[in-house]
Amino acid sequence: MTAKYYLVLLLLILAGSSCKKSDQGNPVDPPVEPPTGSFTFNELKVNDLFSGFSYYSVNLKPTIKLSFSAAIDKSSVVNGIVMKDKGNNSVALNVAFENDDKTIVLSPASSLQAITMYFLDAQTNLKSTSGNKLLSPITINLVTTIDPANKFPEISDQELLTKIQRQTFKYFWDFAHPASGMARERNTSGNTVTSGGSGFGIMAIITGVHRGFITKAEGLSRIQKIVAFLKTADRFHGAYAHWIDGNTGKAIAFSTKDNGGDLVETSFLIQGLLTARQYFNGSDQAESSLRSDINSIYNGVEWDWYRKDNSNTLYWHWSPNYNWDMNMPIRGWNEALITYVLAASSTTHAIPKSVYDNGWANNGNLKNGNSYYGVQLPLGPASGGPLFFSHYSFLGINPTGLSDAYANYETQNKAHALIHYNYAKANPKNFYGYGEDCWGLTASDDINGYLAHEPTNDNGVISPTAALSSFPYTPVESMQALKFFYYKLGDKIFKEYGFTDAFSLHDTWFAESTLAIDQGPIIIMIENYRSKLLWDLFMSCPEVKTGMKDLGFTGPNL
């Protein structure tokens, strides 16, 4: 039997005691008495309100009233009512009585911690003055409010953006793999480096030079190290594995059959390398050699091989052990537009436009056109999917004024971000903390592991990279989120390498992890918002301009 059952039973009892069974003078039903030797819970109020058995945004010294069907033996309260946090730490309680000792009034002896979940249990060893026991235990869940005080001194918006970029940059600079210079998959990855995340890292290094975090000579040296490593690392028809051993360059299986080439991760890497090629444009030997090496890596990717027997779509994986067994066609709308753009732009292994139209666009079936939370979405799944769909390819591809036969990509990406923002404001699942200051769902670490969060798959976990990497699309809304994350939650989520990966105010959970593929877009997209640096560099690639035009793209940057 649950506490909620007994509350409903009580209401039924009260309703029944005030009504007759018929108009023919039948007697009123007698009240239902608890079983002999027990008494029941009657009523709950937290700060004089009842809203079930879970309470959110509770002040740090709440008043909790529990009412019962019998007067309580005061000596039994010490062991009969217990309050603890999620870490099983006990909370000392002040206890008073009302209503002829049938109501216990509880409050914490000292202030509770902010954004913390507590459990108040009334157990069956709670006794009445006649020696009877509580019939059934009850549990009340309490999540305390956010501390409104700023956790860091307030600074100007521009100073704040720089601070976030500088701190996030450390992930790719201080924490880079020492032998290869590559970005580690996450802050606990040891020697496992990531090809796609390293592409993001290269763009972060260029940003670091631009912002004065490091010198240009330092940035060049680090990217030279990365390129030298890539020249000797395992390749599979030119594509790199998702994960690579940072010492040996050998592929590390992402899953059993995903132990070979990953074309999408490779495209993220190439996006970064081409951006570096355009940035280091000096005539000296070091920069000339770097550009030559990057061209060799790009030209070595057999994009057309990944058509899988010359079919009209690109495939994500190929393994020397399992061939095409992963069998994942790359179809839109998702994060992989850059894969088709680079494949079409290749001067050695290009794909024709038909592969883009039939494979990526699925003959137009990537279109949406529906409205969600007041915003029309041109492409993709319901509500747009995780926000990384509008980030990863657009670290380099500038969507401003960019169109093809299927969409205007400035409209697409702004719509995607606004849908997430409006979803958080509407908060249809009533997750604590959601709102105009706290929004953004994407793939990230999760309470239960890892999850691609989106409005249609939401369990209350917010990922800072989602809103922050949307700065070029929703600058006002993203700044609101940034200030909330930094000033109000910064003591919990702003750490050595910037914002940690995810959090849930609803479940008072805060990740300790940082991931390359989530940290990278933060620093890069903030820079694109501020200066368009990475957009300008990548879009200056002559082969990219040609390839995108061949696919039917038009826009001011082509």
From TrEMBL:
InterPro entries per UniProt: Cu-Rt/internalin_Ig-like, Glycoamylase-like_cons_dom, SbsA_Ig
Domain SbsA Ig-like per the UniProt entry, residue ranges: 58-139
Pfam families named among the record's database cross-references: Big_5 (PF13205), Glycoamylase (PF10091)
Lineage top rank: taxon: Bacteria
Position of the signal peptide: 1-20
Record-linked PROSITE patterns: PROKAR_LIPOPROTEIN
Domain Glycoamylase-like as annotated: residue spans: 329-542
Keyword field: Signal
Name of this protein: Beta-glucosidase
